[in-house]
Amino acid sequence: RSTTDRQRRATDSKADQLTELFAKVQEMQRFFGLPASGELTEETLAVMRKPRCGLSDAEPFGETLRWKQSTLSYNYSPIIPASQVKKVFKEAWKLWADVTPIHFRKRSRREADIVISFYSGDHEDHSPFDGKGGILAHAFLPGFGIGGDVHFDADEDWSFNATGYNLFSVAVHEFGHALGLPHSPDPGAVMYPAYNFVPKSDLQLSLRDVKDVQHMYGESDKGLLPERPPPRTPDKCDPDLSFDAVTELQQEVLFFKDRFMWRKHPNFDKIGITLINSLWPDSIPSKLDAAYQNVEMNLMVFFKGIYYLITHMPAVVLMFCVFISGDQYWVIRQLRLEDGFPKNISSLGFPPRVKSVDAALHIRNDRHTCILPCNVTKNVLLSRNYSETRLLLQF
């Protein structure tokens, strides 16, 4: 009986662990706008593998901590070109300074409130780095000693442009933590757990970021007017909301708006919002004009202006796609650019007068797609049939 009891307790303990794991996976999926199946799907694993901040995605910090003084000092000891790092860190702090009363001052030798360092592996703060990829950086809440300090993984291939792991994007996020901000559930926020690697000129604090930091420190007293208003993440309950495009994706219906999309699944009540690039990293542009799915050929086609993208999707894995920008297009297979691309859009048969696409509808029985391009010069809609089997427009 003793052996049987031990086996039963072991079985119950394992069941409890699996239940807890299932619940945690569901929590993580809801946070990232994924269908909350509780299963480690390919999409879920892809999100888990994304380069990220070392702080917990969804767990709250607990007590809110903030700096009491209005001027904060920082210093750093870079292992990469100091002149480039100096500019990046100065501009990253400026984003936060422009919307708060805080002033940031760099110190060269004296002790500073915030110490920025580059470390490899275990660096004795109980948060070791894991080599290239994975965790890129972490920061500590405001306070004495290590409080407010920011650590970057020295093993990463840091970049100063839109390629690779952009130091500016990561710095803006981690400096938010150094000011006391937790991770945000808003996918459009800089403080979202997954870093937003965009060109430096495009990176802005979102409206949510601004409100959160001003809740802690107040509004800016510098009299500066923002060059651009902080972007707002669209709300599905907004009565004035309009979508850029809508399409099916297997069992789901996808609703696109700017760089975001909502995913409606028949088995789940909650409609989660996420970034388009969370499903198709670096492939599909924002602010789409039209989209449709061809089930027979496992194709998805996306249009933007005179651009379009064809995505081949058996199961959930991105296999084949074409992305067109300007007068060129790219063929991507399993997220890799095919040899010989980009090519000119004229090779697909598009006439010069097609400047943008307003809508597209795939007619499954006829195996054709009706494309409604906008004739910019005459301001009228012209319907065209498109055959994916020939990859040419039919007029």
Descriptors for this entry?
single chain; 395 residues; alpha+beta; Collagenase (Catalytic Domain); seven-stranded antiparallel sheet; six-stranded mixed sheet; 5 helices
Describe this structure in words.
- The protein is an alpha+beta fold and 395 residues long.
- It folds into three domains: 2-49; 71-217, Collagenase (Catalytic Domain) (3-Layer(aba) Sandwich); 245-394, Hemopexin.
- The protein is built from five helices and 24 strands.
- The protein has helices spanning 2-31, 42-48, 82-97, 167-178, 207-217; strands at 52-53, 71-77, 103-106, 114-119, 135-139, 150-153, 158-159, 165-166, 245-249, 252-257, 260-264, 272-275, 290-294, 299-304, 307-312, 320-325, 328-333, 336-337, 343-344, 356-363, 368-375, 380-381, 384-387, 392-394.
- The strands form five sheets. Strands 13, 14, 15, 16, 17, 18 and 19 form a seven-stranded antiparallel β-sheet that branches. A six-stranded mixed β-sheet has the order 1-5-6-4-2-3, covered by helices on one side. Strands 20, 21, 22, 23 and 24 form a five-stranded antiparallel β-sheet that branches.
- A hairpin with a 2-residue loop joins strand 16 and strand 17.
- Helix 3 (82-97) packs across helix 4.
- It starts with a helix and ends with a strand.
- Residues 63-219 form the Peptidase metallopeptidase domain.
- This is Collagenase 3.
- Ca(2+) 3 binds at residues 130-131, 153, 156.
- Its cofactor is Ca(2+); Zn(2+).
- Keywords: Calcium, Collagen degradation, Disulfide bond, Extracellular matrix, Glycoprotein, Hydrolase, Membrane, Metal-binding, Metalloprotease, Protease, Repeat, Secreted, Signal, Transmembrane, Transmembrane helix, Zinc, Zymogen.
